[in-house]
Backbone:
């Protein structure tokens, strides 16, 4: 379960980076904002996974 979540969270962050880059290239403010939001959401989820791992004692 944890590894799948980590991969999914990282994918969400990367998708946000791509969306923001496309928004930057096309000067589309909506895509820029959505990209930043997706990156933040993915990063926050990753941080949550790291906290869970720390409590479980996982060193991955």
Residues:
């Amino acid at each position: 379960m944890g590894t799948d979540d980590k991969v999914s969270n990282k994918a969400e962050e990367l998708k946000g980076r791509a969306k923001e880059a496309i928004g930057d290239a096309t000067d589309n403010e909506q895509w820029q904002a959505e990209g930043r939001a997706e990156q933040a959401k993915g990063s926050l989820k990753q941080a949550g996974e790291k906290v869970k791992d720390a409590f479980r004692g996982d060193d991955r």
Observations:
- The chain has a mean pLDDT of 89.
- The chain has one domain: 3-57.
- The two ends are 14 Å apart (CA to CA).
